[in-house]
Design a protein that fits this description.
It is a single chain. By secondary structure, this protein is α/β, with parallel strands linked by helices. It has a single domain, classed as Alpha-Beta Complex (Spore Coat Polysaccharide Biosynthesis Protein SpsA, Chain A), CATH 3.90.550.10. Helices cover 51% and strands 13% of the residues. The protein has 13 helices and eight strands. The chain has an eight-stranded mixed β-sheet with strand order 3-2-1-4-7-6-8-5, with helices on both faces. Strand 1, helix 2 and strand 2 form a beta-alpha-beta unit. Helix 1 runs antiparallel to helix 11 and helix 8 packs across helix 10. The longest helix is centred in the first third of the chain and has 35 residues. 41% of the residues are buried.
């Protein structure tokens, strides 16, 4: 019995370690091997390549940030005759639609889709894509700001006919006085950026940040209206068709962290529920014999992070208790103490977060535990059928 407990204990540790550390190491080694064998992907950077693009911005009740978004959008470094800007404001009742309409005389390349019914972001995207005539469409959120060279840095990759989509980078704007959730989120996205760079060099990014991603217009297939992670589904389906999805860190969208830990939890739980929804709908990607490297990347980088690691963590703790009670030796007692200390730090971090007190030492244990807790909650939310394609907006820090 003790042997079985030990096997299960170390198996769970191995799965968690691979999910968060091992995959990055394996991907790094494989990328190095590709370089040694001279099988790197060609990089394109022709400044004269400037295809027409459409920037799509779903904006539901965004008066608090729409003026900043408009200034940012029309200040981007790209020829005005090669970029169309399409706002989708369906269901807005705070003046967002009227404000965009008032700008029509100022910006000749501004377009608007409005309406009285709020259908959600994915339906806004489905409706918008039918009106687009440019070969490339770039999706971005209304509450984010894009860097000046964002369009140029994105479109250069589409010179490669094998590239079907480009994922931009999400950056969290934190200040010195920010609470742990915002700082932890920023740290998480820095690590994600590192992994996405490896994914791109290995074959393809597995998923894009909804704050900023671009696709070839003719590859955008209509997405189910109850889809929670539209960016993830769109990009993975394009990758499944044999196209690469490129990560471009020099094209980024900046946004403030969630206003409170409760707002951040609401967002993370919904994302996790969307993760489980995506795993079910993308079950064909589990066939590594057909999809090869893409399947390996998808399972290692995404599926295991949503569906394996979060459930292994409580099992590790419970198995450790069982081994501790069977007096299997001081080594397991030490691991038990380390786990207790780690989760106590996470609990203290959560308490201090609610008090708006920032302690750097607690960032990692707090945010790591927080993410995995939200993943488990997201699973039960998905199982209970509490899913809708309409996002409930969360408040962002001022």
């Amino acid at each position: 019995m003790t042997l079985i407990l030990k096997i299960l204990f170390w198996l769970c540790i191995a799965l968690v370690s691979y999910t968060y550390i091992g995959y990055g190491l394996v991907a790094w080694i494989l990328v190095k091997v590709r370089k040694v064998l001279g099988k790197q992907f060609k990089k394109y950077n022709d400044p004269s390549f400037m295809p027409k693009v459409t920037l799509v911005i779903p904006a539901y009740n965004e008066m608090s940030c729409i003026n900043t978004k408009v200034k940012n959008t029309f200040g981007l470094d790209y020829p005005a005759d090669k970029i169309e800007v399409l706002f989708v404001t369906e269901g807005s009742n705070d003046g967002t639609t009227e404000y965009i309409q008032s700008l029509a005389k100022v910006y000749s390349n501004l377009q608007l889709i409005d309406g009285d019914i709020r259908r959600g972001k994915i339906e806004a995207m489905n409706i918008a894509i039918k009106t687009i005539t440019t070969p490339i469409v770039i999706f971005t959120d209304a509450n984010t700001n894009l860097n000046h060279q964002v369009v140029r840095n994105i479109v250069r990759h589409f010179q490669d006919p094998k590239v079907g989509a480009v994922a931009g980078e999400k950056r969290i704007e934190t200040e010195g006085s920010e609470a742990a959730a915002g700082a932890g989120e920023g740290l998480y996205w820095k690590y994600e950026s590192f992994l996405k760079k490896l994914d791109t060099e290995l074959f393809s990014v597995v998923g894009a940040a909804g704050e900023l991603f671009a696709v070839r217009t003719d590859l955008f297939g209509e997405v189910e209206k109850d889809t929670l992670l539209d960016d993830f589904m769109v990009s993975l389906r394009i990758a499944a068709e044999g196209y690469r999805v490129i990560y471009e860190p020099d094209a980024y969208a900046s946004e403030r962290p969630s206003f409170s830990i409760q707002d951040e939890m609401k967002r993370k739980v919904r994302i996790a529920a969307g993760g489980f929804q995506s795993i079910v709908r993308l079950d064909f990607l589990l066939n590594i014999f057909r999809y090869g490297l893409l399947s390996f990347q998808y399972v290692s980088h995404r599926a295991m992070r949503w569906a394996v690691a979060p459930f292994c963590l409580p099992l590790i703790f419970l198995l450790n208790i069982a081994l501790f009670l069977t007096n299997t030796g001081s080594f397991y007692r030490l691991i038990m103490l380390v786990q207790i200390a780690f989760y106590l730090m996470a609990i203290i971090g959560y308490y201090l977060e609610n008090q708006k007190i920032r302690v750097k030492l607690l960032f990692v244990p707090f945010y790591f535990s927080f993410m995995n807790y939200c993943a488990i909650k997201g699973y039960f939310r998905y199982r209970n059928g509490l899913t809708s394609g309409i996002w409930e907006k969360v408040k962002r820090a001022e």
